[in-house]
Structure prediction request, 211 residues.
Amino acid sequence: MNSPTYDFTNSWFEQTSKFVWDQVISHIDPTRILEIGSYEGASTCYLIEKLAISKGIELHCVDTWEGGIEHKIGKDKVDMIGIEKRFNANTKLAISKVDNPVQLVIHREFSDTALSKMIAEGKKGYFDFIYIDGSQQAPDVLCDAILSFRLLKKNGVLAFDEYLWQEKLPYGIDPIRCPKPAIDAFTNIYCRKIKILRTPNTELYIRKVAN
Ligand SMILES: C[S@@+](CC[C@H](N)C(=O)[O-])C[C@H]1O[C@@H](n2cnc3c(N)ncnc32)[C@H](O)[C@@H]1O
Prediction:
């Protein structure tokens, strides 16, 4: 009988983050992880397989499973019910492949709400690694960055996916409908509290060096 395989409908994670994670995740070696934007679970399953092979992990996934603006319009409109079903099946499969416990906590809501609740619950400085890959709109990315900084422990790593992503709109490029201006504003304002790590410029990773 064939063993079950993951069901992903795109290769975003393979194309953008995977080759960076292959180099950095083992060094960061996080135990408490927060992922903003999980979609079908490609990045989630990578983290489970890579880390829970050697130790137990706590992995919080925040997603509305409603898609970003770019998933809701025109020919790119996506069936998000199917996406969420695949996330559940894929993460179940990943957990079945590893020997150590995986505490998977799903926050099915907007990231500003989920992250604010975690801060209110006392999770400031809780996470070792936070991956921001939710909304790609600059105001949302800035909000995710600021709230995530509070949730990240000192010496923890914050990773922004898609630093250079731009939405191709009928009228060209909208400078606010992309993550870069928000990531730049965050890294400029927090320059005394962070260190930018050396990674390919499709991604931007920072280490928190002060609270
Ligand atoms: C690019 S996908 C994530 C891809 C995933 N990390 C992977 O590697 O396959 C972005 C996800 O963010 C979610 N999302 C968009 N805006 C959001 C928001 N404001 N709050 C929570 N989730 C959001 C979407 O529903 C979508 O599933």
User: Anything to note?
Assistant: Helices lie at 12-15, 18-28, 42-51, 80-97, 111-120, 138-151, 180-189. The chain has one domain: 30-109+131-200. Residues 80-97 form the longest helix (18 residues).
